[in-house]
TrEMBL record:
NCBIfam families listed in its UniProt record: PRK09589.1 (NF007154), PRK09593.1 (NF007158), PRK09852.1 (NF007356)
Protein name (record): 6-phospho-beta-glucosidase
Keywords, comma-separated and alphabetical: Glycosidase, Hydrolase
Name of one Pfam family that matches: Glyco_hydro_1
Family designation: Belongs to the glycosyl hydrolase 1 family.
Keyword Cell inner membrane among record annotations: no
Gene3D superfamilies: Glycosidases
Active-site residues per Swiss-Prot or TrEMBL entry: 384 (nucleophile)
The organism's place on the tree of life at top rank: Bacteria
Length: 485
C-alpha cells in the first residue's frame, strides 16, 4: 500500500478551543442561571501555593458563597465578555483561518435551573447568533454539551450527578440543543474531561463531597450516571442529526515509570489503565475487567438499572477527543509529587516545565496518540493543547510569545509524525486560542491565547483584543496545512 508522505490530511480541522464558563461572562444576563463555576473564587498564588482547590464541599460553604461578602472575586462570572464581543473574536479566528472552533454551550443558559419544562429562548437565540457568525466564515462549530457547567440548582436539589435524576434532565437538554442546532452543528462532545470528577467531585459532577458518606462510592456512581447520559445523548444525536459526529473527551495523562523496576512499571500501568477506563466505557461500550476488580477491592457497588449495560454497548461514540498538556512519572516509592492539571507525579528530569510547573513533553503526545489509536481504532481529535504562560507587552505594543510558538510547533511536529505512522487524527484545537479565565486557578494572568485580552486577575482592564506574535505564526500553520512550522 502506498501512503502519502504529507503529514496532515487535506480536510484536517485546525482551530482553537474555549469553554463558555471561561469566556462568556454575562453570568446574570439573558436569563442565565447560576452554574457551579460561578461559585469558584480567585485565590492569589501566594495564598494558594501549588494547590488547585476549586471544590465547594458543603451546603454551608455554598450558602456562604451565595450570600457573598465584600472583596469576593468570581472571575468566571465575568469571563472575557465573549457574550457581547463574539463577533469581534470570531472575526479574529477567521483571520487566522480556523477550520473549526471548539466551544461549549452553557447548560444553565438554556435551562437556568436545569429542570424547567421549557428552555430559555434568550439563551438558545444567543447560540444561534454565535453559530451563524462562525458559519459565515466557514468555521465548523465543535460543541461540548457539558464543560464543567452544571446548573447550581441541581447541586442544591440533588447533590449533582450523585443522583440519577440528572440523567433525564441532561438528555432533555441535549435533545433540545440537537433539535435547535441540527442544521448548524455537525460535531459534538458530551462531557469535557469526564475523568476530572475523580480529582474534583464538585467541578466534574457537582457533588458537595462533605454531604456524602463514601467519596469514592459517590464519585463512581455519579460517573456511571454520566456514562449513561452520554450514551443516551449519542443515541439522540444520531437520531436527530444523522449526519453529525459525536465524541467523548478525556483529560489524557501519559504516565511513564520512573525506572525499569517492575514495581514502577506496574504502578505506571495501573495509572494508565485508570486514565483510559473512561474512554474504555464510552468507546468500547463496557466496564473493563480491571475496574471491576478495583471496585471489588474498594467495596464500591454501583447501582445499575436493567438495560444500562445495553445502553452503553449500543451507543458508543464516533470519535475520541482528549486534552494533552503534559506527561507524568509514576513510582512505587513515596516521593514528593509535582502538581499539574489536577494530576500529580514525580518530576521528570529530562523535561523542562512551564511557568506553572507543567512538564513539557511533545513526544509524549505522539506516544499517547499511538497508544490510544492502537487501543481503540477510532478517529482521534486533540481538542486541548497549549501553554499557559505570563505574557508581557513590550513598549512598542508587541507580545513576543516565542515560547508559545516553540511549544505548539514541537507538539504539532509530533502530531504529524503520528499521522505518518498511521494514526487517524482528524483535528487539533489549541486551548485558549484567546486569553481566558484559567479553569484550575481562575487566573487571567495564566495566558494561553494567540490573542491578548487586556484584563487582570481582578477584572481590571479595557478588555481590548490584541494579536500576539503567535497569531500570525498559527495563521501560517493553518494556511500551509501544517507543512510550515
Amino acid at each position: 500500500m502506498c501512503m502519502s508522505q504529507k503529514r496532515f490530511p487535506e480536510d484536517f480541522l485546525w482551530g482553537g478551543a474555549t469553554a463558555a464558563n471561561q469566556v462568556e461572562g454575562a453570568y446574570n444576563e439573558g436569563g442565565k442561571g447560576l452554574s457551579i463555576f460561578d461559585m469558584v473564587q480567585f485565590v492569589p498564588k501566594e495564598e494558594r501555593g501549588n494547590d488547585i482547590e476549586m471544590d465547594v464541599k458543603s451546603k454551608e460553604e455554598l450558602e456562604a458563597l451565595l450570600a457573598g461578602k465584600e472583596g469576593d472575586n468570581f472571575p468566571k462570572r465575568r469571563g472575557i465578555d465573549f457574550y457581547h464581543r463574539y463577533q469581534e473574536d470570531i472575526a479574529l479566528f477567521a483571520e487566522m483561518g480556523f477550520k473549526t472552533f471548539r466551544m461549549s454551550i452553557s447548560w444553565p443558559r438554556i435551562f437556568p435551573n436545569g429542570d424547567e419544562s421549557q428552555p430559555n429562548e434568550e439563551g438558545l437565540a444567543f447560540y444561534d447568533k454565535v453559530f451563524d457568525e462562525l458559519l459565515k466564515y466557514g468555521i465548523e462549530p465543535l460543541v461540548t454539551l457539558s464543560h464543567y457547567e452544571i446548573p447550581l440548582n441541581l447541586v442544591q436539589k440533588y447533590n449533582g450527578w450523585a443522583d440519577r435524576s440528572l440523567v433525564d434532565l441532561f438528555v432533555n437538554y441535549a435533545e433540545t440543543v440537537f433539535t435547535r442546532y441540527k442544521d448548524k452543528v455537525k460535531y459534538w462532545l458530551t462531557f469535557n474531561e469526564i475523568n476530572i470528577s475523580v480529582f474534583s467531585p464538585y467541578i466534574g459532577s457537582g457533588i458537595l463531597i462533605d454531604e456524602v458518606e463514601n467519596k469514592e462510592q459517590a464519585v463512581y456512581q455519579a460517573l456511571h450516571h454520566q456514562f449513561i447520559a452520554s450514551a443516551r445523548a449519542v443515541k439522540a444525536c444520531h437520531e436527530i442529526i444523522p449526519n453529525a459526529k459525536i465524541g467523548c473527551m478525556l483529560a489524557r495523562m501519559e504516565v511513564y515509570p520512573e525506572t525499569c523496576n517492575p514495581d514502577d512499571v506496574l504502578v505506571a500501568l495501573d495509572e494508565d489503565q485508570k486514565n483510559l477506563f473512561f474512554t474504555d466505557v464510552q468507546v468500547r461500550g463496557y466496564y473493563p475487567s480491571f475496574m471491576l476488580s478495583y471496585f471489588e477491592e474498594k467495596n464500591i457497588k454501583l447501582n445499575m438499572l436493567p438495560g444500562d449495560e445495553e445502553i452503553l454497548l449500543n451507543h458508543t461514540v464516533d470519535f475520541l477527543s482528549f486534552s494533552y498538556y503534559m506527561s507524568m512519572v509514576a513510582t512505587a516509592n513515596d516521593k514528593e509529587k509535582e502538581l499539574g492539571n489536577f494530576f500529580t507525579g514525580v518530576k521528570n528530569p529530562y523535561l523542562k516545565a512551564s511557568d506553572w510547573g507543567w512538564q513539557i513533553d511533545p513526544k509524549g503526545l505522539r506516544i499517547t496518540l499511538k497508544k490510544m489509536y492502537d487501543r481503540y481504532q477510532v478517529p482521534l481529535f486533540i481538542v486541548e493543547n497549549g501553554l499557559g504562560a505570563y505574557d508581557k507587552m513590550e513598549e512598542d505594543g508587541m507580545i513576543n510569545d516565542d515560547y508559545r510558538i516553540d511549544y505548539l510547533k514541537a507538539h504539532i511536529e509530533q502530531m504529524g509524525e503520528a499521522i505518518k505512522e498511521g494514526v487517524d487524527l482528524i483535528g487539533y484545537t489549541s486551548w485558549g486560542c484567546i486569553d481566558l479565565i484559567s479553569a484550575g486557578t481562575s487566573e487571567m494572568s495564566k495566558r494561553y491565547g494567540f490573542i491578548y485580552v487586556d484584563q487582570d486577575d481582578y477584572g481590571n482592564g479595557t478588555l481590548a483584543r490584541k494579536k500576539k506574535k503567535s497569531f500570525n505564526w498559527y495563521k501560517n500553520v493553518i494556511a500551509t496545512n501544517g507543512e510550515e512550522l
